[in-house]
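Hello forum,

I keep getting stuck at the same step: I have a sequence, I want structure tokens, and every attempt I make locally crashes halfway through. Rather than fight my setup again tonight, could one of you with a working pipeline run this one for me? It's a single chain of 266 residues.
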Amino acid sequence: MRYSWHELPPAVRAEVEGHTGPALRTTPVLSGSISDVAVVLVTDTGHFFCKGAATDNPMGWMHRNEARWNPHLPPQVPRLLWQFERHGWLMLGFEYVAGRHPDLSPGSPDLNLLATTLTTMATALTPCPEVKVQTAAVRWADYLAPEAVDGNTLVHTDVTPHNFLLDGGSIKVVDWSMPCRGAAWIDTALMVVRLIRAGHSPAQAEAWADRIPAWSTAPSGAVDAFATGIAALSLERHQQRPSAAHLGPLATAAASWARHRATTIG
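Reply #2:
Ran it on my machine without issues. Output:
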């Protein structure tokens, strides 16, 4: 259940406003599925993005992870300004980014900037910051051999376009709630699946990815294995949650990519 700002306990709203100033206007943010509340607050001191989870939310650990990792992330990531866990709620306050989500369709002018962003992020987060984080080998152990995804880069892993915001001539990358440490090309590989879902052929998606150094230098065999593993994982997730509308198209896109790797490249 997603709560509105005014449905939060008064003590929670008061503590948030102790950091931001009184809310003059609020706008709910509807994307995402983990937060119990997500809202843009407009105050006399500016705009803020606030999200949180009730302490009985079993996925609240993702918010704690995001708060722990935020100080280690590069400038392309909005800063965490404050956090608290009281009154039955875990609340995080971030810099607000005014922007739109990128268009991933073929021919989109956003694709060049997206490639630049993924290149910059892979460079900035290699080596992986000194912070406790799951490895890609552990996360995908049921689908991939460890050596296929091993590496020393902090990778985002949730590259839905909802987590990218075009802000002027740059892209901000948000929602770092489940990164892992692994090969520098992983985020680009996951974006290939998103591009195929958006209408690119697998060959077109990989041609776009070739402009990203971490991808263009990746071992072909490791990428082959990753494509096969992600296709299996995507299908399993779709079968487990058939009512989730986005999982079917992602599974189809991942399967298309895996076939391409097996028949054209492998």
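The chain has a mean pLDDT of 94. If your local run keeps crashing, start a new thread with the error log.
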